[in-house]
Amino acid sequence: MDSMRIVSVNVASAEPIDIGGDSVLTGILKRPVDGAVRIDEAGLEGDVVCDTERHGGPDQAVYAYAAADYEWWSRELDRELAPGTFGDNLTIAGLPEDIHVGDRLLIGSVILEASAPRIPCKTLAARMDDSGFGLRFRRAERPGYYFRVLNGGEISAGEAVTIVEDPSSSVTMLDLYRLSFQPSPQPEDLERVLAAPIAERLRRRFETKLAAVADQV
Questions:
Q1: pLDDT digits over 104-141, tens only?
Q2: pTM exceeds 0.85 for this model
Q3: What are the residues facing 66 on neighbouring strands?
Q4: For residue 177, what are the contacts with CB-CB under 8 A and spacing of at least 6?
Q5: Is the distance from CB of 152 to CB of 178 less than 8 angstroms?
Q6: CATH class of the domain whose range is 4-169
Q7: How do the domains of the chain map onto residue ranges?
Q8: Residues 32, 84: contact at Cβ < 8 Å?
């Protein structure tokens, strides 16, 4: 694996964006910042989460996206995409194409634990000025990863990142991502991912699907 490093640390203030003709405040318009940024279990200092029902919280405090995936999208869309375009807090060079739930990133004293993939939404489509971008993002299978913060501290662009894999985990981010879109998932697949330390929003989604399957038996 190539050496990992933070390319950019990105935060946002609340700004309006047009979603289906409505002006909605969002924190997706993240931009790179200079210098060290404090990070704790709530996320990055100076960053805002407007839609707290669907975003943020202790289980999804930090969103990371791979620099290689930005390069891929820039070629795919035939335009340069700046770090933070997808609403990522951390743009990371060398971030693997897939990681396991429970894998950890070490950045100095900061410890992040992988909890969920990013599921595309209307806000992302509005950010990209393309109503069909959610489906395009889904099919690309380059979702980026959410992390909970196990140990806080300060982070800055240029810092080295080390990944520590969870040897007990058999559930990957792409497993969760693909299962999220399956209309009729198998109960054993749902039970397998529910046994992993996944983010609570995703847990509720899979528990609802499992209950629906049980009602059909």
A1: 999 999 999 999 999 999 999 999 999 999 999 999 99
A2: yes
A3: 92
A4: 117, 119, 141, 143
A5: no
A6: mainly beta
A7: 4-169
A8: yes
